[in-house]
Design goal:
CATH class of the largest domain: Mainly Beta
Strand content: 35-45%
Radius of gyration: 45 Å
CATH topology of the largest domain: Elongation Factor Tu (Ef-tu), domain 3
Number of helices: 3
CATH superfamily of the largest domain: Efflux pump adaptor protein, beta barrel domain
Largest sheet: 6 strands, mixed
Number of strands: 24
Helix content: 25-40%
Length: 354
């Protein structure tokens, strides 16, 4: 009886095990949304804020030191070439001119005297009334007086130049955009007094982060719009790209030449829409990106066995709503764009009824 009882228990357990095996059913495929990878043309762009500046700017400064006696213009003043915009105290220079003029008059008198003496000795020499040595001495004294006269003339010209340097004149037609002197201030020679924005061509100037240049130089054509009215856009060409990087800001200065007649005054804030050369790559939406050991990856769908695998990728550029893949994905690969958070390696999936 005991053996029959054990046999019954064993048969019951076998039946229960068979029922459990029949109850195990494979899980349904995970529903995902996919996109077929395809090569596409992408173009890096950037919108940079800048301002309108004069193409030619001049730093105006006195050529001599002194105390500022008068300042005739201020920031925003429009000046003409040759206009006196500031003056220094010229008492010292006036005295130098007076001394030089007196020295010149003295030298002129000496030359006249020596000329008469030379002419007289020459007449006497012709009549053999004086020896040759007296004539030679008179000639030497005349030449020396003439040299002194030339030196006096040069000294007077130098003194008059120094006097003229006490007046600071505009070098060209333009607008004063900055000043750094005031009446009563003592300035040194070559110290910047005013900044003059010359009339004429204008540039839109932008400081662009150096990362934008990783793909090479931007396209020459730039769309420029004023911040105050984006509808007034113009297209202009890049005129100059700075060959050096601003070490503090990490930017490169770009100057865009505005067309003649562009009605934007100096200092107008503008936005420049820069574009890099177009390139070929695989562009995927941000929802497709995943992570594999801390590196960017995507879920690749194997259409043959309808399963997924995680692939590491190299991202060339992250953009506002998508990213560009440079390696790890080939054209026509099926990439999961939605539902990837719940996937495991080798998991069966179904997508859009395919």
């Amino acid at each position: 009886m005991q053996s029959y009882r054990l046999l019954g228990i064993a048969l019951a357990c076998a039946c229960l095990g068979a029922c459990e095996d029949k109850a195990e059913v494979a899980p349904p495929p995970q529903q995902v949304r996919v996109v077929a990878a395809a090569e596409a043309q992408y173009q890096q762009g950037a919108e940079i804020t800048g301002e309108v500046k004069a193409r030619v700017q001049s730093e105006l400064s006195f050529r001599v030191s002194g105390r500022v006696l008068e300042r005739k213009v201020d920031v925003g003043s429009h000046v003409r070439a040759g206009d006196v915009i500031a003056r220094l105290n010229d008492t010292e220079q006036q005295a130098d001119v007076s001394v030089a003029r007196a020295a010149l008059e003295s030298a002129q008198a000496v030359v006249r005297q020596k000329t008469l003496a030379f002419e007289r000795s020459r007449s006497l020499l012709r009549s053999q009334a004086v020896p040759r040595a007296i004539f030679d001495d008179a000639q030497k004294e005349l030449l020396s007086a003439q040299a002194s006269l030339e030196g006096a003339e040069a000294a007077l010209a130098t003194a008059e130049d120094a006097l003229s340097y006490t007046e600071l004149k505009s070098a060209a037609d333009g607008i004063i955009t900055a000043r750094s002197i005031e009446a009563g201030q003592v300035v040194s020679a070559a110290q910047s007094a005013f900044t003059l924005a010359n009339d004429g061509p204008r540039d839109a100037v932008f400081d662009v982060f150096e990362a934008f240049f990783l793909d090479g130089q931007p396209l020459k054509d730039v769309e420029v719009v004023p911040v105050s009215d984006p509808s007034l856009n113009v297209h202009a060409a890049i005129r100059e790209v700075s060959p050096v990087i601003d070490a503090k800001a990490g930017t490169i200065r770009i100057k865009v030449g505005l067309q003649k007649g562009t009605p934007w005054p100096l200092g107008t804030p503008v936005v420049g829409k820069l574009r890099a050369s177009p390139r070929e790559g695989i562009v995927l939406p941000y929802t497709a990106i995943a992570s594999a050991e801390g590196e960017p990856a995507v879920w690749f769908v194997n259409a043959r066995n309808q399963s997924v695998s995680l692939r590491k990728i190299s991202v060339g550029r992250y953009r506002q709503s998508d990213f560009v893949v440079t390696s790890g994905v080939a054209p026509h690969d099926l990439i999961v764009t939605e539902g990837g958070k719940f996937l495991k390696e080798g998991q069966a999936v179904a997508w859009d009824g395919k």
